Amino acid sequence: MLGERVTTEITRTKDAQGFSKNKDAAKEGGEVAGNARKDAEKRIGKPISINGNYLEEPEKRKRKQVS
Fold it and tell me: What is the mean pLDDT of residues 8-33?
């Protein structure tokens, strides 16, 4: 969520138009989010992203089976 928001702001601020400029903005936004995650993990002393955070089966696939 942070990466997407930062990417949007970078894109608007730099008035990025075209694939390559938007790609660069996305890389910058991802870098900001990655750095924030690493800093948070360093401060709390444990990883934020662990295997337990992920769904075994995506919700979209589950809904298809029920219908």
Answer: 94
